[in-house]
Each structure stands twice: as structure tokens, then as C-alpha cells.
TrEMBL record:
This is LysR family transcriptional regulator. The keyword Transit peptide does not apply. Transmembrane segments: none annotated. InterPro entries: LysR_HTH_N (IPR000847), LysR_subst-bd (IPR005119), WH-like_DNA-bd_sf (IPR036388), WH_DNA-bd_sf (IPR036390). Keywords: DNA-binding, Transcription, Transcription regulation. Belongs to the LysR transcriptional regulatory family. Pfam families: HTH_1, LysR_substrate. GO terms for molecular function: DNA-binding transcription factor activity; transcription cis-regulatory region binding. Residues 4-61 form the HTH lysR-type domain. The keyword Transcription applies.
């Protein structure tokens, strides 16, 4: 058997995950005929069909599903090898770090500052998203690691507890709040806690309203447009803090762990180790807050 080319494996992965030739060609910025040819050559090389047609899309055959498991590992190793070589040659590397917005606003800048002190040539690429989106991106190897709201339970992920956040009920300090529960969009771990609180502890269910940013939510709450659940330190650092008050919540609602996650198949590079080392720079009071 000839040696399988990386470009063929990357093409196979895109077709498998996008479910079709057209979508894969758009993702890879190439024409459909190139994608088709690479898949055909890979099938000839392996002596088996990797896809069969289903409606307008493609479904993987059993050999295709088996191959995908190995391809994910091969391509992850290829990406990590490239980073390791750049790090060895230049003393610098890119690192894609994801974080939920509350962590980005309160802890990530200080953590990255500490990390840059011990690894000055590190080039972090930051993306903020919901916990659900970040978990998916780590599983798909789109980012190297992430800080999420836990608990996260997935056999393919390594999780490390960083500290605990205390969620509080946040209201306007001057105005009687409307019967609205102002939340992040679907996928946020704090949203799930807020929905649990609304279901289990409110005799009259609040109407749900969604916004996409911390300050947007807290600004609306400050104007009496509803209430929200938010980490205490996030509220205390908000530009609206003088217009807000908070109340403690039941223990089963209030305590939310912040966790560091990375894919279990990701080789531990030195830059990763330095990120773990830099966790000690987080404010001591937030380790248990």
C-alpha cells in the first residue's frame, strides 16, 4: 500500500465531518473535483469504499468510520508536531485558548499576563464562547484548551478544577424588577443554573430573555428589566455595580466550578505545562470563591 498523503487525510476528514463534497470543498477553499479525486484515490489505495450516498449527502461506511478515528489522531499529532517544531526553532508558538465570557472578563487577562512573563514569545489566540461551544471546539481540535463552567464530563477530555465561582441573584438597586430572567444564550453553564433556580425555587416562573454579553445583561438588570444569576465577582467588577444589588442563592445553585479542559489525545507540550504552572497566579481569594 502506498503512503497515505496528509492532504488526502485532511480532505477525508472534512468530507466526513461536513457530510458532503461541496461543503468540504468550501471549507478547504478548493474545487469539488479536487475533493472527489482525493477521496477516490484514498479509496483505491485502501481498497475499500469510505462513503456511500444518502440523499444529497454522504454517509461513512464502517471502514470509513474506523479510518476517521485514526485520522483524527494523525492530524492532531501533525498539528502538535508543527507547533513543537516552531517552538524549538524560534522559542515561540501559537496557542488557541478558549474561555467563557465571565472568565475572559475577570481572570484571563491576568493569567495570560503571567504566562507571557514566563513564556514571552507565546502568541495566544483567544476566543470567547459558551461552555457548550468551547467543549465542542476542544473536541474538534479547533482550539488547544479552554476555561469553561463545570462540571464537564467527557471521556475524551482532561479536566482540571481551577476554582469555584459563587453565583448570586442580581437585581436593580433602585427599581422593582420586571418578571424577566435575563440569560445568556443556549450553551452557557450559568444559564443552566438559572433555569434550574427558576424551575425549583420560583413559585411563579419568570419569563426568559436572552442577551449575548455580560454588560448587556447587567445593564438591563440595572434598569429593572429583570433579574439574572451571575458570579459575584463579575457583578462587583461591572460598570453597573453601583446600580445593582445581589442576594445569596441555595448551595446547589450557587456553586459552579471553573475548569480547564484539553483533549485527552493532545500531547502535552512545554507551552501547555507553562499554562498549568501559571494557574497559581490566579488571585488566591478566587481559588475558593
Amino acid at each position: 500500500m502506498d503512503v497515505m498523503e496528509l492532504i488526502a487525510l485532511k480532505t477525508f476528514e472534512k468530507v466526513a465531518k461536513e457530510g458532503g463534497i461541496l461543503a468540504a470543498s468550501k471549507q478547504m477553499n478548493t474545487v469539488q473535483s479536487n475533493v472527489t479525486t482525493r477521496i477516490q484515490r484514498l479509496e483505491e489505495e485502501l481498497g475499500t469504499k469510505l462513503f456511500y450516498r444518502k440523499g444529497r449527502g454522504l454517509e461513512m461506511t464502517r471502514p470509513g468510520r474506523i479510518l476517521l478515528e485514526y485520522v483524527d489522531q494523525i492530524l492532531q499529532l501533525e498539528r502538535q508536531a508543527a507547533v513543537a517544531v516552531r517552538l524549538a526553532e524560534k522559542g515561540a508558538a501559537q496557542m488557541k485558548i478558549g474561555a467563557m465570557e465571565s472568565f475572559s472578563a475577570t481572570h484571563l487577562p491576568q493569567l495570560l499576563g503571567a504566562l507571557r512573563e514566563i513564556c514571552p514569545k507565546l502568541q495566544p489566540r483567544i476566543s470567547a464562547a459558551t461552555t457548550a461551544e468551547l467543549v465542542r471546539d476542544v473536541l474538534d481540535h479547533k482550539i488547544d484548551c479552554a476555561f469553561v463552567g463545570g462540571p464537564v464530563d467527557n471521556k475524551d477530555l482532561i479536566t482540571i478544577d481551577v476554582f469555584r465561582q459563587e453565583l448570586v441573584l442580581v437585581k436593580s438597586a433602585q427599581l422593582e424588577p420586571a418578571d424577566n430572567l435575563v440569560l445568556f444564550r443556549e450553551g452557557c453553564s450559568y444559564r443552566n443554573k438559572a433555569l434550574q433556580w427558576n424551575r425549583d425555587y420560583m413559585s411563579n416562573q419568570l419569563v426568559l430573555s436572552e442577551l449575548g454579553t455580560l454588560e448587556g445583561i447587567l445593564g438591563c438588570v440595572a434598569q429593572g428589566l429583570g433579574v439574572t444569576l451571575m458570579p459575584r465577582n463579575v457583578m462587583e467588577l461591572s460598570i453597573y455595580r453601583n446600580s445593582l444589588v445581589c442576594e445569596s442563592l441555595p448551595e446547589d445553585i450557587a456553586q459552579v466550578p471553573t475548569q480547564f479542559i484539553q483533549h485527552r489525545s493532545t500531547p502535552r507540550l512545554k507551552v501547555m505545562e507553562r499554562l498549568f504552572d501559571s494557574l497559581q497566579w490566579l488571585p488566591v481569594q478566587n481559588k475558593t470563591a
